[in-house]
Amino acid sequence: MMQDTTKKVAIVTGGGSGLGLAVATRFIKAGIHTIIVGRDTEKLNTAKTALGNLCYTAVCDLSDLTAIPPLVDDIIATHGQIDILVNNAGINMKKEFTEVTDEEFQRIIHTNLNAVFTISREVVKHMLHAGKGSIIHISSMAAQYGLPKVIAYSASKTAIDGMTRAMAVELSPKGIRVNAVAPGFIYTAMTDKALNSDPERKAKVFGRTPMGHMGQPEDIGEAVYFLASDAAKYITGVVLPVDGGNSIGF
Ligand code: NAP
């Protein structure tokens, strides 16, 4: 199919809720055709109703790696191109280091890292053909400093930062920019649960966040949109903290 240079198509994994929904909202505001991917059909449909005609849904469990190539092929068949990929879908689990089972460790690595590799590889095949594209991974403060009780999550997000740089050096000469956004503590269902169950951790978070408050999902939406846009055309291989200074706070 011919590339339509007047339109842009983005995939946002986990775009039905939280930070992914904020990214999809920002993209749609900019007129970008946005496919949101998740496991929960109802969640995706609710998001689509709110976001309107430029929003498309794709139900897929990304931890089933064999489902990813057909997902990408379907998107290409329907939309003709993929200009932007945002790897946002992710899971977390808070548990003492010695209590984490091999299965739990691997489950988190599988969704947060293996699936990100597989979908990126499949999308990059099409971006290489087009000679352009922008990929944004969603990392975390857990890759900026040591956080207790999130061993698998920290390992997965630190690997994402490494993958951002490795992909950027290999793909940027071919027109594909690869960056990551590292959200600080942002209000979503995930952080609400994690922090409210641990007041000591909550106090610590605010104690080292110079701006003194949590971020909002739209702060991540704006940063991802910037990195995806031509305004960031000379930026590749960076991990951008959007964190109110949390990663450099004393
Ligand atoms: P969230 O609301 O729980 O969103 C996670 C999304 O990922 C959901 O929409 C979920 O959709 C999707 N997802 C999870 N597993 C999936 C799978 N196997 N296949 C397809 N979709 C899957 O969490 P969030 O806070 O917005 O987090 C989004 C990203 O930001 C994550 O990568 C997280 O690590 C990162 N992050 C968040 C914060 C924060 O403060 N919120 C801070 C640092 C990093 P379904 O349920 O429909 O599958």
Question: How is this structure best summarized?
Answer:
The chain is an alpha/beta fold and 250 residues long. It has helices spanning 18-29, 41-51, 68-79, 102-130, 151-171, 189-196, 199-207, 217-228; strands at 9-13, 33-38, 55-59, 84-87, 133-138, 176-183, 239-242. The protein has one domain: Rossmann fold (3-Layer(aba) Sandwich), CATH 3.40.50.720.
Structure description:
The structure is a single chain. The protein has 250 residues and is of the alpha/beta class. The protein has one domain (9-184, 216-241): Rossmann fold (3-Layer(aba) Sandwich), CATH 3.40.50.720. 46% of the residues lie in helices and 15% in strands. It is globular and about 50 Å long. The termini are far apart. 47% of the residues are buried. NADP nicotinamide-adenine-dinucleotide phosphate is lined by residues 13-14, 16-20, 37-40, 43, 61-63, 88-92, 111, 138, 140, 183, 185-186, 188-191.
Global shape? globular
Helix content: 40-55%
Strand content: 15-25%
Task: Supply the number of structural domains.
Answer: 1
Classified in CATH, the superfamily is NAD(P)-binding Rossmann-like Domain
Unreliable spans are: none
> What is the fold-level CATH name, i.e. the topology?
Rossmann fold
List the ligand species.
NADP nicotinamide-adenine-dinucleotide phosphate
First-residue to last-residue Cα separation: 53 Å
Strands of the widest sheet, in order across it, are: 3-2-1-4-5-6-7
Order of helices and strands: EHEHEHEHEHEHHHE
The mean pLDDT is 96
CATH architecture: 3-Layer(aba) Sandwich
Which value, in Å, is the CA radius of gyration?
A: 17 Å
Q: Which CATH first-tier class would you pick?
A: Alpha Beta
- Give me the secondary-structure category: alpha/beta
Biggest sheet features: 7 strands, parallel
